[in-house]
Amino acid sequence: MTAVQERETETAAGTPAAVPRAREARRAATVALADLRRPVIWRIRLAVVLAAVGALAALVPFVALAELAELVLAAGPVDRGAVITVAWLAVAGLGVRGLLIGLALTITHFADVDLQATLRRRIVRRLSGVPLGWFTGTSSGAVRKAAQNDIADLHHLVAHHSVELTAAVVLPLGGLGYLCLLDWRLALLAVGTLPLFAAAYAWMMRGYAEKMAEMNAAYGRISSAVVEFVSGIGVVKAFGRARRAHERYQRAAGEYGRFFAGWVRPMLRLEAVSTMLISAPVVGLVSTLGVVWFVGRGWVTPVEAMAGVLVALVLPTTVTALSFGGEDRRVAAAAALRLRELLDTPVLPVASPGRRPADHRVVLEDVRFGYDAGAEVLRGVSLELRPGTVTALVGASGSGKSTLATLLPRFHDVTGGAVRIGGVDVRDIAPDELYRWVGFVLQDVALVHGTVADNIRLGRPGATDAEVVAAATAAQIHDRVTALPDGYDTVDARLSGGEAQRVAIARALLADTPVLVLDEATAFADPEAEAAVQDALSELAAGRTLLVIAHRLPTIAAADQIVVLDGGTVAERGTHTQLLAAGGRYAAMWAAQDEDENR
Fold first, then answer.
1. Exposed/middle/buried for 154, CB within 10 Å: 0-12, 13-18, 19+?
2. Please, which residues have CB within 8 angstroms of residue 591's CB and are 6 or more apart in sequence?
3. I need a labelling partner for 50 at 20 to 30 A (CA). Which of 165, 311, 416, 595 fits?
4. pLDDT tops 60 at residue 237
5. Residue 453: pLDDT band by 50, 70, 90 thresholds?
6. CB burial class (10 A; 0-12, 13-18, 19+) of residue 557?
């Protein structure tokens, strides 16, 4: 059984347990939403009060129509003055409603703008303090989604939901109160179809949480089948197994389709009937037939009957508002939970006041580190990196090379021991000061949107054009840049992996940090580019403390110290000549690479 199949089995088997987890997640999302809205909650409440008064003002035209009908149908001459007064009252009611609802929406929209700005500032402040290693495990897409999409998902809830829902609820409630003053039977008639709608809706929603858990599990099986098929498509097609691999997706899709159809099909007819029960034509018809009967029995007057029908026609808008409002709230609550998790990301503690290293001698003392509690990646690593020397880390994949290198620029904090620069623990150095001492060129080079010059200047934003060109020349990338359409002003230049690495090296040269970490700096370079990168690295090494991670051993044969890591511990250390003579792990790795290259 594959790992994906095991996860599917656990998901399907854990469906009952998923229900309380889903309820707990909804509770957490509701709490997160309330917390995020707290800075603007009083403005929202003020807008709700204005919307409620505006909704009640909208009742004035209903009452005015009834009064007009009373005046027109009364025996004797029509009182024109009274008619004009009542008409102006109706117009005033509509005007007050428009003014107050508009003012309420203006308040909530300004509150939404302020909340979005506040949340984005909080995100920037939080992300500026998280460990750099956090960005390695978190995609830029997830951060962008939180900063843009999730915050945008809060817009309707903050700017519209409370005002529109209040208006949609208060108007019918006020209308029902007015009908109760006329005759309680009119109020009952106006809501006559609501119990039937409520019963049908409750029937449709029975077992909803369990069904959603089943649907999510089925959807998860489809997703895993797609990922497994696409990731292995080259292999399965090469061996003629594409049809069998595709059958698993078809089976998962078929199961999902049958489940969804079996759940939804019976509800569609019931939903059509329940929706019809609260539609304006049905409500109007039921109310009209009812008031005809009431008038015939002498319970209400024709004018009161007309008021009953008019108020009853307003009720469907309340149900619609509640339905859409509930969905908006669920979307906003889910977005708020994701934002809350992002804003709760732990930050690295910053020493105050920070200390300054005495020099660029680096010492690792009994360093221990693990990404997860109880699972150590590094165990008791002790090293000394002297100024003006190159120390190379080698070892099999997963031995802890990259992890060890990221502890120097404090991508993570050690869980045991200490990393010191110039006699000072990196945890006692303020981040701005630390990055004036430690630079890094990583395996996955990040070039930001902008010109080539902008990317090089990231190392020192105030650098002159001459200094940028000098750094690029030393990094063996100047000739390639000048060949671009706009030279150093080329925006989003299309560079190869080796060329991008040389731009990163130029950036590091311009920053001129005394300690430098290079993680597989020739990983994406072809043989010709690798020679250029090596020349650039030789320029970098002069007078600095250099820590290099290498996969190709010939690139670090001249290093002052080579450290072999195995299982998170130091297995060997020494120069290239010493380690070959020792006949240990390094010698075996060298022989294996030499054999591969000679094939």
1. buried
2. none
3. 311
4. no
5. very high
6. middle
